[in-house]
Amino acid sequence: MNKHLHTVASGGFLFTYKLDLVGVQEVRWERGGTVKAGNYIFFYGKENNQLGTEFFVHHRVISEVKRVEFVSDRMPYIVLRGRCCNIIILNAHAPTEEKSDVSKDRFYE
What we know:
By secondary structure, the chain is α+β, with helices and mostly antiparallel strands.
């Protein structure tokens, strides 16, 4: 397991605050997939992912995950099975003011 993932999942804020699902940003891995990180499954994005918007999901709720989609490197979403309806959680990483207009326009399209 990646040393940084282990630190975040085992001794970091996920462990301290007992969070079941967390969206994280600016994780720069070269390809998409999943990896076990302590009591969490880490879902990470598409190939050539520069901005890295990803999810940590605790094993307590992993059975409720219906799907994880990476719309772009700035916007994944996760669909969870709820009691009466599905729950969609979006993790958006919007470009800041100093980014190019092209980058901002692409995000908001």
